[in-house]
Amino acid sequence: MASKPPEPADTGREDDSSDLSRRQFLAGIGGAAAVAPVAGELGQSRPPDPSGGSQRGATYGEAQIGPGGYRILAEHERAQQQRGNEITYSNRVNAVEDLGCDPNGNEPIQDKISSAAEDGMKIVFPPGTYLATDGVNIGVSGTFGFVGEGFQSATKPPKPDKESVVFKIQAGGALNFLNVDGLQGGEFGNFVIDQRDPLTHGGVQVRSKGNVRVRDIRTVGAQTTRDPGDDQPGFFTPRAPGADSLIVYERCIARGGGIPGSKNIYGSPGISVFGREGPRGTIILKDCVIENMADNGIYGARTSANVRVLGGLYRNNDVSQVRVNGDAIVRGVDIVIDEKNYTGIMSKSNALEGGPGWPATNGLKIETKQKISASTGTPVKNCNIVGESVVSESSVGALVNIWDTGGAVTITNSRITNNIAGTTSIVAQNPGSGKYAAAPKPWTTTVKNSVIQGNQAGNDNPAVRVTGRPRSIVKNTCLKYLNASSGDIEGAGTSGVSYGQQCKSAGLSNPGKVGSGGNISSLPPPNVSYTGGGVSQEYKNKVREKSRQRVLSVGGAVIGFFVFMAAAIAGLVSMLGGD
Predict the structure, then answer these.
(1) What are phi and psi of 356, to 5 degrees?
(2) What DSSP element (H or E) covers 179?
């Protein structure tokens, strides 16, 4: 028996010399994809500042990852191919012509899809509006696809218009509109989820032990459901049971968010990653945009899966913008707190009519309860982390908050801008000082080749506060603000640190790589093949038989109804004494 391919190393190493170029990546995995720049998805691209600084009020570029991210993706894709986890379909099915789905939004489609789903099927939806009053539940064990027309060539999530596939949710509550369980492989995406009806929320959950791509999904509308409990479906929910699984959620966008302050009542995370029982695989969150959530933007801390956050924008979410465990990689991400420019639902529950009224939030939060695999700790690289404004200073924990359960963390070539009074830019808490046990050693916090700036950095609070983590160090980093000094770094050693607004001798090693500015990039599709040339005759026969049974069932019901009505009328006439 062939030996199992090794797991990709995912060391998060700092040397980019071996990173693949995009062309090398495409050639290396044998994939191909048409990739075009997408202007205006997140605003205009932000040109790099050679000095390592940034302008106040700067816009944020379109989501992308750098070559290092391509290397990570290439390694995982190659491992899937070596394991034989290619995505193969036997049937391509047109949702309208073959399944009878209504593209005009008058009849619900969920039962037709759920009952027709079978291994090897790829359902393609033509442009139109499709009504869903309950979840589409897919329980196949093989491969399955659920995509809008043009999925393979798509380069960005569609917007709700007549040229797009739009699923209109009218469920009167929170549900996973698409709930896929037990899948070995598949593709999902190139559609819009419209949850603008009151008290409606529809998420996308995919659970697989194999190889899955969820790509180019846009959710419009906020989560306004008020179902009790703290277990509401996230907007996007990847599940990766089994050590060999690879789940990629790419270019998934949700900006409507939820009701501020409802996290422990009915609020949902933007991306929800849970699951700690048994071996877990890898979940890659690539170039996603999550804003205004009533819970974490990414809740990826309470899982034993390997979470990779590559590119994307996470802005103005409650609790944390990005919350991950110690085995995660965070690379090339824009993380922003700017409450005064919040665009989600306003809440009057905390008398903050000018803002969302968060109970608390953080930029990046790192915690863990399991062994950290990377010897250098959680790698945070090429990130742009911004604290711009809040209504209440006390509502922010830190721009980077390493909890007492968090292990070692290495922050490299990242820019941290702090304009929020009373907020420390980087906090590393004393391991084991809270209610949970400390992570296994190492516990060191390392900040290198980075910039900490902003008019509130080092003002009243230190710029860096490390507690109980020996051998922590800040090196080759610039504290770029007025009156910066060595006293602004507490609990960590320093080496090659520069202070002040000039900082000519330290700072970012590669300013052009910081943040997600640039074009939305596309992960080349996995190898996908078809063993059939369209809808199989066997499947057509199944559809005909199901239609015949429905006709017989409906016909029987109609006949029974008329018999019942005739008897009822006769009885009524008799009771009334009629002829």
Answers:
(1) -75, -25
(2) strand 174-194
